[in-house]
Every structure is written in structure tokens, then in C-alpha cells.
Design brief:
By secondary structure, the chain is mainly β. It contains 1 helix and 13 strands, in the order βββββαββββββββ. The strands form 3 sheets. The protein has an 8-stranded antiparallel β-barrel with strand order 4-5-6-9-10-11-12-13. Strands 2-3 form a two-stranded antiparallel ribbon. The protein is globular and about 50 Å long. 26% of the residues are buried.
Length: 196
């Protein structure tokens, strides 16, 4: 069987960020003054009592980490034999302080960024890079999935992988086609779900 080579690496990534950044205190966590006015003066505007209650919150921002679970089903225009045609994806959201992906996070220009582990490591005989990055940009039409390819200079080049739409039973679904070097193409149907 002659092998058709892909015109691009089979490395897919995208930048998707969905989550909530909690800033400051919520109404039910607000500091409450529980000390009692014990000074002996009768002039309330010159109260010199110090606030002796301890704050119960840390007043720091909290990143809510989302997880990515998904799958991509490939269809090639040739027989792949017994090679797998489905990739499974598991990942977690990445933030600026991530030692492996923080640099990409700072330049991804996406709403969310995920580090994704993909299994198995091959699809129809082609190697699949794992882990990879996947970005998301939320729009009124769904979620733009951003992929990243190695640019050959130690960085990444972003590209739109697909636009996901809400699935009928939850999560997000998407489809796309990619060209092969010989002029043909292969099709992909995928889904992903995000959870806290």
C-alpha cells in the first residue's frame, strides 16, 4: 500500500479558555466588623477602637481550572487497515504560571488555553504529537477552536482548527477537513466537553 503524506503535521492544538476569574470578595465573604465598642468616650465620631476581628478570606484572585474531555473521529480516503481512527483527548486549562505552557498562554490571544494529552499516539499510521495545546475563543456563534503548529523557530503558529457549536446532548461538536499532499483530503468529526 502506498502511503499518502499529509501536507501539514498531524499536530493539532487550539486555544480555548472558559472559566471564571474570581476577583475580590463576594457579598457573603465580605469582612464584617465583629468587635465591640468598649471605649469610655461618649463621642462616637472619635472612636479609637481598632478592628480586632480577623479576615476569613485571603483577598486573592482564584483561577478556576477547567478540564477538557473530547474525541476526534477521522475518515481517510484510503484503507487504514487495523490502525485506529479515533483520538481521545484529556486535558486541563493552562494559566500564565504554568511551567510548560505559560509562554504560549501569554501570546495565545484566546479566551482559554488547554494542555491536551492525545491517545493513541498514531492515527492511520501517522504519529500524533502529544501533549498539544488547544485554545478557545468564545463567540456568539459558538467556540472557535485554535490549533498550534511548531513554527520551526521554537515558537508556535496559531490557526483556526474549527468552529464548535453546542451539541444536542451537551458539550460542543465540530467538523473539519484537512488536505493531503496528493490533493485529496481527510475528514474529522469531533466533540469536547468542559468541566470544573
Amino acid at each position: 500500500m502506498s502511503r499518502v503524506w499529509l501536507a501539514f503535521p498531524l499536530v493539532f492544538g487550539a486555544c480555548v479558555v472558559q472559566g471564571t476569574l474570581v476577583e475580590g470578595d463576594s457579598a457573603d465573604e465580605a469582612d464584617t466588623d465583629t468587635d465591640t465598642d468598649t471605649d469610655s468616650d461618649s463621642d462616637s465620631d472619635s472612636d479609637s477602637d481598632a478592628d480586632s476581628d480577623a479576615d476569613s478570606d485571603s483577598d486573592t484572585d482564584v483561577d478556576i481550572t477547567m478540564t477538557w474531555t473530547g474525541e476526534r473521529d477521522f475518515e481517510f480516503p484510503f484503507d487504514c487497515g487495523n490502525d485506529p481512527l479515533v483520538l481521545r483527548e484529556q486535558g486541563t486549562e493552562v494559566f500564565a504560571n504554568d511551567p510548560n505552557w505559560g509562554g504560549l498562554y501569554g501570546s495565545c490571544q484566546c479566551d482559554q488555553l488547554f494542555a491536551i494529552n492525545v491517545t493513541p499516539g498514531t492515527i492511520c499510521g501517522y504519529s500524533v504529537a502529544t501533549p498539544t495545546a488547544r485554545g478557545l475563543n468564545w463567540t456568539s456563534n459558538g467556540a472557535q477552536i485554535v490549533g498550534y503548529q511548531n513554527d520551526g523557530n521554537g515558537g508556535f503558529q496559531a490557526y483556526e482548527l474549527a468552529v464548535a457549536r453546542p451539541g444536542t446532548t451537551g458539550g460542543w461538536v465540530y467538523d473539519y477537513q484537512q488536505g493531503l499532499q496528493d490533493g485529496g483530503s481527510f475528514s474529522v468529526s469531533g466533540w469536547f466537553d468542559l468541566a470544573q
